[in-house]
Automatic annotation (TrEMBL):
<protein>
    <submittedName>
        <fullName>3-phenylpropionate/trans-cinnamate dioxygenase ferredoxin subunit</fullName>
    </submittedName>
</protein>
<dbReference type="GO" id="GO:0046872">
    <property type="term" value="F:metal ion binding"/>
</dbReference>
<dbReference type="GO" id="GO:0051537">
    <property type="term" value="F:2 iron, 2 sulfur cluster binding"/>
</dbReference>
<keyword id="KW-0411">Iron-sulfur</keyword>
<dbReference type="Pfam" id="PF00355">
    <property type="entry name" value="Rieske"/>
</dbReference>
<keyword id="KW-0479">Metal-binding</keyword>
<dbReference type="InterPro" id="IPR017941">
    <property type="entry name" value="Rieske_2Fe-2S"/>
</dbReference>
<keyword id="KW-0223">Dioxygenase</keyword>
<dbReference type="GO" id="GO:0004497">
    <property type="term" value="F:monooxygenase activity"/>
</dbReference>
<dbReference type="InterPro" id="IPR036922">
    <property type="entry name" value="Rieske_2Fe-2S_sf"/>
</dbReference>
<dbReference type="GO" id="GO:0051213">
    <property type="term" value="F:dioxygenase activity"/>
</dbReference>
<feature type="domain" description="Rieske">
    <location>
        <begin position="2"/>
        <end position="102"/>
    </location>
</feature>
<keyword id="KW-0408">Iron</keyword>
<keyword id="KW-0560">Oxidoreductase</keyword>
<dbReference type="GO" id="GO:0016705">
    <property type="term" value="F:oxidoreductase activity, acting on paired donors, with incorporation or reduction of molecular oxygen"/>
</dbReference>
<keyword id="KW-0001">2Fe-2S</keyword>
Length: 115
């Protein structure tokens, strides 16, 4: 896991785009705080078109893509509505003091096996 930001950098609720280094290259990740204060890490790239999910609105435990409105579950990566039909990767996140740590080397979402 690598430090990506401080807990204070993440809007409440809202999202922050970070670039996470991995052995196979840099991964764009959205660190998202849901409306209950929980932190999540998902791919920052919408599965419908290549736009940044961190620019969307957070509602409950979902983040809504600003371009066409598909909302993705922050726990599973699954979209709740069209036009997106494929889930986005979900990454492991931990908090150590004020530091947010993310492991973007593996998709840990429950839908990962289907991809
Ligand atoms: S680009 Fe995200 S729903 Fe279309």
């Amino acid at each position: 896991m690598v430090r990506v930001c401080s807990v204070h950098d993440v809007p409440d609720p809202g999202a922050l785009r970070v670039e996470v280094p991995t052995p196979s290259g840099t991964v764009a990740v959205a660190v998202v705080r849901d409306e209950d204060g929980g932190l999540h890490a998902i791919s920052d790239t919408c599965s419908h078109q290549a736009v940044s999910l961190s620019e969307g609105d957070v509602e409950g435990c979902m983040i809504e893509c600003w371009l066409h409105g598909s909302a993705f579950d922050l726990r599973t990566g699954r979209p709740s509505a069209l036009p997106a039909v494929h889930p986005v990767p979900v990454y492991a996140l931990a908090v150590d003091g004020d530091d947010v740590l993310v492991d973007a080397t593996a998709d840990i979402g429950p839908a990962a096996e289907a991809r």
